[in-house]
Every structure is written in structure tokens, then in C-alpha cells.
TrEMBL record:
Residue stretches making up the VWFC domain: 1-53, 53-114, 111-172, 178-238
Lineage, top ranks: Eukaryota, Metazoa, Chordata, Craniata, Vertebrata
Alphabetical keyword list: Glycoprotein, Secreted, Signal
Domain of life: Eukaryota
Designated name of the protein: VWCE protein
Location in or out of the cell: Secreted
Any Pfam family: VWC
Originating organism: Loxia curvirostra (Red crossbill)
Major localisation: secreted
InterPro entries reported in the protein's UniProt record: vWF_C/EGF_Fibrillin, VWF_dom
Record's GO cellular component terms: cytoplasm; extracellular region
GO process annotations (BP): cellular response to virus
Amino acid sequence: RGISREPSSRWTEPVCRSCTCQGGQVLCDAVSCSVPCSHPLPAPAGGCCPTCTGCLHEGVARAEGDVFSPSDGNCTVCICLAGNVSCLSPECPPGSCPSPSPADCCSCNPEKCNFRGRTYAHGARFSLDGDDCTTCVCQGGEVECSFTPCPMLDCPQHQRQLGPGQCCSTCRDPPAPAGCFLDDNGVEFPVGQIWSPGDPCELCICQADGSVSCQHTDCVETCPYPIRIPGQCCPDCSAGCTYMGRIFSNNETFPSALDPCLSCICLVR
């Protein structure tokens, strides 16, 4: 192949053939592989012989020390050690067994339960006679009973109640509000009470559910010189006139503050 080889030298061709140079001739034979394991892995890339650093089981490569179950093995457990696969199957007791295996490894029947004159199959759930708050279950010939779990309640103890025929307590409905309590000034108003919170143009009412509903009054001024009365929301156009900070009644005459020779009169129109 265009390469010079020394006498008695050995080399491996890419097609897994072992060659040697003897007396000017090249002698080649197929590479002989010694595989000391039962489930070797295929030869790695560039190699000719299978390797025992893992296992090939049912077409699946397993790492050294890997524990697995075969696809058709009923609860059989296998392990890969030095290229060999060793499998173990569970030993099943004869006749009935105390509890069923999770994967039905054994062909045994779980033991039934005899409880208060009745026979229950394994896994059966039932309640005691006249006590629906207790749940029992048959487990491999033994009956285990427990109280029905109750949900957590978010109400205080004095608001809890246990009704007839109930297993768990419930929260009583909160009492209906008797009025509206204002946190800002600590005043409580009865239901239906109407009051002003400070602004004469705003009125509030205490609702039946304990909430407060407020409404603001918009005033419409119908005269050019309305009179604002303290504590009253809207200005009054029929009470008289305001002049220089003073209030004059209708048809009242008064001197002008600008010219003492002038006389003024309040006319409500």
C-alpha cells in the first residue's frame, strides 16, 4: 500500500485484519478477539473487538454497575458487572400473601378481613355502623380505622358550630351589622342614619350591610349676588344682598361705602 514495513513488524488494517511482514511478504489474517464476558458492548469507533466495560442487554447499552429490570421480567432485577448481566427474581410465598406486591410480582391473593361478623376484601373501605365520621380499610387481613379528616377553619373557636349529623365543625355566619362604625372619629351611626361628615355639601347614609354611602350636592347659583349662610351647602338668593361683607335684607336701603352722598337699596330679582 505504498508504505515500507520493517521485517517481523505487525500492524492492523482498517478492515480489522492483522498483518505482519515476513521475508518480504505481507501476511494478513482476521483480528482474533477474546471476549471474556457474556454481554459485551460493540466495538467502539476505530476498534475491532467488543468491550466488556459495559453491557448490551436486549439491544440497550447498560453502563457498568447499572441496575435495571428487563422489559418482560415480572419484578426481575438485573445488574451489569464487567460485561456480564446477572438477574434475580423475587421469591413468592405459597398461598395467600399479607399484602399485594406493587407490580403484582407474586401470584398470591391478599388476605381478607373479618370484622364484626362481616368479611371485607383487601383494600375495601367502609364506615362503622351508625358512625359515618369513621372510615375503615382492610389491609392484608387487618382493619385500620381513622376519623374523617376535617378542613382547617379560619374563624375563632367561639364562632364554630357542629350541626346534627355532621362530622366536622363549620363557621357560623357573622352577625348582621347593627350600624356603621367610622374609624376616623370613633362614631357609630345606626342603619338609615344620614349625616354630613364636615362638608355641608356632602351627605352620607349608613347602609343595611354596615357600609357608608356618600353623595355630593352640586349647587346652581341663579342670582348674581348670592348669600352664603354658614353651615348651609348652597348659597341663598332669596335672603337678601351682600355688600362690603354685610348682609342686607330685601328692599333695605343703606348708604354707599364709596360715596356718602349715594344711597343703595337691596332688590332681590
